[in-house]
Amino acid sequence: MLRLWCLAGLVAAVLPSASGLYFHIKEGEVKCFIEEVPDETMVTGSYRVQKPNPDGSFGDSDENSQGIGIHVKVKDPTGDIVMDKDYAGKGRFVFNTHEAGEHQVCLSTNSTRWFSGGGHVRVHLAIKVGEAGNDYDTIQKKEQLTQMETRLYQLLAQVRQIANEQAYQRTREATFRQISESTNVRVLWWSIAQAGILIIIAALQLRHLRGFFEAKKLV
Hints:
The protein is of the alpha+beta class. It has helices at about 1-15, 135-145, 145-215; strands spanning about 20-25, 30-35, 40-50, 70-75, 80-85, 90-95, 100-110, 120-130. Strands 1-8-3-6 form a four-stranded antiparallel beta sheet, with no helix packed on it.
């Protein structure tokens, strides 16, 4: 049992925590975010759109999210579209990655009725990668698991996420090593070429000086 909780602490220390943000967006404006994700990983985005009040403030009630929606478009590192959907003013979107690397998540509004006079809305967004997006209370009720079984399920999901992340980091390391070795080889050949050019120039200069001295009968 002690080893189990030590593993839980280690996993919690290794995995990054999800963070949220908010931004303002106007009609026709698109906001994009880059998320670097391993392959075969679930990404969950929770969002909430707030309409401005007449005084310019933004309320926290659900009524401020009604009547306006959000459009989400996700592209993988190769430029292929992973998801392209319209959503309501409050909810979440989920997609699975099939390519490791930087995924572009773009959001825009899908309604124009609230943009008279050049107004804007506020969008709260939190993106969670991997098992951080799992709702374990829902999983526990759905699968009828005990608290210990739910904890073990969570630990297994975290270990899988760590394994995917390590595999991705190894792939990145191999790519960077290949780029570094290729750069070093190019620098080496460029240095050799420079040395060869200098030797040729020195030989031509010596030949020219020798011809000059012979023409002047100095040697």
